[in-house]
Amino acid sequence: MQFWSSSEIQSDVADSHRPARKDVELAINSVIATRSYGAGVSQWALIYIILEEGDDYPETYRYQKKNGVAEFRLTVDYANIKVCDDFEHRKQLASAILRSLELAKTMKIQSFKLDTFSHDVIDILTERGWLS
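and the corresponding structure tokens:
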């Protein structure tokens, strides 16, 4: 199991976003890589949309059964990211991850222990202080 993230991002916040995104990704992967949640999902893919004008990139989510990818494209508030510190930046990303876990409940994902996966991810984010 792998957590993967990328971004559609406004250029003026890209440099501060990159280390925050990688830090969150590494924290999650350090735990979930060794766990088994079932064969239904091999990759949890989250694309953060951090744009001043987000209308060109609507939020979407889907499950690709053929290759086991749960994909989410979720908006993170550009104005908050532009002014927040590094820690708050990670909290903003954690909120998007939490939203992806909630959205996954509406998807028809078979052979995947979503509750266990969600619990593990929430524990990681909470331990780091990224979720209140």
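(Above: one complete record from the training split.) Residues 2-127 form one domain.
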